[in-house]
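Entry: 3-dehydroquinate dehydratase
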Amino acid sequence: MNELKPIYILNGPNLNRLGRREPEIYGHDTLADVEAWCRQAAGERPVVFHQTNSEEKLIDLVHAAIDDAAGLVINPAAFTFTSLALLDALKMFKGPIIEFHISNVHRREPIYHRSYVSMTATTVMAGLGAKGYPLAVRALELLIAENKR
């Protein structure tokens, strides 16, 4: 039997406050809700789901994905716009990468318009709210099936 490689869903700083932080922007759904939706959307495929407020830990999680994952959904939050180290780690990942943002970052302040992660992501999804995560999982499955990077 072919064992399915997992997908990694990685979340950056402050997403542990989802549902309580700026609900007018991010809504009332929690990260626990998001994780449950992602696992359901993945079906039989294993999911590795993490959130960290640490840039170092997020990079370590990307390194683990490099060795283990079929694909990656990453919401790097503020590190999207600041971390060259995260960009360098993501460039080593050979599978498809979906950069995901709950809000439409392009409708927000100019500081949110330049993404380092976009320089290596296969695709970007933004503005769908927290309920967009399972859509990202399904899109990642298509990219994996098509062997896209």
